[in-house]
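Continuing from the previous page of notes. For each protein in this section, the sequence appears first, followed by its structure tokens. Read the first protein now.
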Amino acid sequence: MSSIKTANYSSALDLLIEQHDTIEQLLAQLTDDRIADERKALLFRSLTDVIAAHAAVEETIFYPAVRARATDALVQDALADHIAIKRELADLVMSELDDPRFSARLQILQAQLEHHAREQEEGVLFPHVRELLDADELDRLGAEMTELFEQLLTERPLDVTRPLREAAVHAR
């Protein structure tokens, strides 16, 4: 489903950056108008699973670990981004791939993810985390995050996006 090779990552930050790269690559493929609908559906499913698993890892392991280290305002901003991203993703999940609004929504999601991952996390939060956590702490955190991420993608790939679909239904 995902091309992320998580077993080789020792650092929590390396793992998250690789996940950001994978999400960016999936988005680039999805925005290619030349891909067949069947391939687009598979790519979108993979994208939703990776985003949902990535968010779960950040929200349940990474953010609590770094929030306790005096980065509360940065974590609050990141969590606010997660809410906006999940709302947009839920709208996309409820859309048909051939809906003219799908491409526009996908571009909005792409911009939100770019801001969140590259600017907010990699540009602001991660440098603080590098100062606050030593290599051993990042390695332990990375191992825990890797385990959860792989579990979410392999054991429950269909369930990962259910909360997003349910949120979209309740929002309507």
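Done with the first. The second protein uses the same format. Note its length before scrolling.
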Amino acid sequence: MYWSQLKWSRDCVSHPWFHVVTGMWKKYPNPKCSHVISIDVLDRSVDPNTGIIRTERVLGCKQKAPGWIVKVSRQVVRSGLYTCSTFSQLFGGSEDAFVREIIYVDPATQNATITSVNLSLSQFVTCFERIQYTPSTRDTTLFTQTAEIQARMALWRSAADNLEKWLVQRFEQNAQLGKLAFTDVLRTLWEEKHAQSVV
């Protein structure tokens, strides 16, 4: 059985598309997004016919588990059903989390699309996010973000509901931090550079 929640956001970035796409690659590491601790590029290619750039990466994150999962983990271990290490392996009891990200940049149509999905705990829950950057005007870029969160724990509906609520809250917090971090990146790259060239 599946439960899902869909989040949607749309905003205008006060920079031209080219600036936004350039800044996109410099978003991490970032003190405002300190939960992202590593970025590994798995593949990068350019389609010779279309010029579309495709990049696949894995982001390593530190995310604390919700308190109720830690509490349930302790109770299960105390009951003797599982050892601590077995339960941690089964439910991904580590703070380390990994996300697969695929980025397509089409310079001809000025479209950049980022899709990401969690690799950690994927047997229980999936968070699929899609971000798109397209020109709005000559000097602004349209940012569109959707996220679908699905919990798959048919035997434990209340646990699935709680996990989903926690993930939605975490997603919203991280999305807000990501926007602030990206604003800082764009300011550093372009606004400060422009101010220096004027002086």
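What the second structure shows: The chain has four helices and seven strands. The longest strand covers residues 3-13. We return to this in next week's lecture.
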